[in-house]
Amino acid sequence: MSALTAQNKMKSLKFKTEVTRSKAEVSGIESLIRTMLRKHRTPFMIIKRCALQKQYQRFRKCLPDVIPYYAIKANPYPGIIKTFVKLGASFDVASAAEMKQVLRLGATPAKIIFANTIKSPEDISAARKRRVRLMTFDNEPELYKLAKDYPGARVLCRIKVANIGSVVELSLKFGADPDQAFFLLRKAKALGLVPAGVSFHVGSQSTNVENYLQALEISSGIFDQAKENGLPLKIMDIGGGFPIQHFDNEIGINFERMASHIKKQTKMLFDKNVKFIAEPGRFLAGPAGILVTQVIGRTFRNNKNYYYLNDGIYADFSGIVFDHCRYEFKTLRRGQKFLSTLAGPTCDSLDTLSANEEIPELYVGDVVYVKNIGAYSSASATPGFNGFPPAKIIIV
Ligand SMILES: Cc1ncc(COP(=O)(O)O)c(C=O)c1O
Q: What distance in angstroms lies between residue 205's CA and the mean position of ligand 1's atoms?
């Protein structure tokens, strides 16, 4: 057999194995859904603990020198937090409510970063009371608040970095100009705080590794400037943003490759004694979630099938609005596919999930499910995203 034939045989074997594996995965998920349907009413979200563990291990393996602080805003469900506590993870919280939750579920104060650059005075005092010392900031007025309510807090200056190609832009609202970072850190010291390092966020679902590489280069310049001026920094926080595959056949997302570039860059630019941390949310929670809904109504309009599901953008599909996310809708039915529209159950036309889905004909009661929906879905569906509750209603 020629080398080329052997190579082709190997390729075809690999292809067959991959197809068999993905078929097995589909049948595994679908039989899990059928089992759950016997016990639970839809809509429900299955969170696969093994997927949480797998993502955590993947992160640790690919970036062994970067400590992951799970950003609970992605999904603060207690079972998820407990799973990460057991795995030894640290946590990123955005409010005192989130902080209290992770502490209640077993995290220790030393394993928490308060990573919201704007904190209410009450939340700063809550952090002090609970000895959560590490936090981010990006402006001078915030330093005065921290100095007043939490002298001795350890602060990381969040800088504004490029978010090119990221699905959710996170540098519009946050981040100091990098040129100002050293001066802000020096000011922090003068005010009785402990300037500990730099942080950034390249935007959520960032498939562009250049964002990280460039942000690390800018940050290393701040570390050098601080060191030269007698203010050695210890912590480099590379934020979140690590992307996941939302669609089965999505290309261009390769966490392993991205992580290896990041690893190389950190080794090249920073001293050995610098501690690296990250704030992954979507990467850790997203792949674990499978949302299961049912058709509650159907019609034919605009030359298309319209199916109304019992979950929509005001609930677990809120990511369509807030997370700019698109999902792959799957059905348990097989057969010829037709162009269809999927909509949520509310009386609002905005509550349309997809106007152009190729799916088999469905009937009332049929299941429509979505994988990789564990992050920024149920979290933003509940009142109090990030731990900030809506206004209470006072009838007068
Ligand atoms: C400060 C901060 N850290 C971490 C995250 C988590 O980001 P991701 O889910 O993209 O990893 C976010 C997301 O909004 C954030 O604002």
A: 9
Tens digit of each residue's pLDDT (9 = 90 or more) over 207-225: 999 999 999 999 999 999 9
Is domain 29-46+287-381 classified as CATH 2.40.50.140? no
| Structural tokens at position 62 | 């690919």
SS3 sequence of 195-222 = EEEEECCCCECCCCHHHHHHHHHHHHHH
Q: Which helix (H) or strand (E) holds 370?
A: strand 367-370
Q: How far is the CA of 92 from the centre of ligand 1 (A)?
A: 9
> Which among 50, 62, 157, 347 is annotated as catalytic?
347
CA distance 57 to 264: 20
Q: Domain boundaries in the chain?
A: 29-46+287-381, 49-284
Average pLDDT over residues 346-370: 96
Q: Which residues of 280-293 are buried (b: 16+ CB within 10 A; e: fewer)?
A: bbbbbbbbbbbbbb
pLDDT in tens, 98-136: 999 999 999 999 999 999 999 999 999 999 999 999 999
pTM of the shown model: 0.93
pLDDT tens string 304-345: 999 999 999 999 999 999 989 999 999 999 999 999 999 999
CB-based pocket (< 6 A), ligand 1:
71, 73-74, 92, 115, 170, 201, 204, 239-242, 279-283
For residue 73, report the distance from its CA to the centre of ligand 1, in Å: 8
Architecture of domain 49-284: Alpha-Beta Barrel (3.20)
Look at residue 177 and give its three-state secondary structure.
Answer: coil
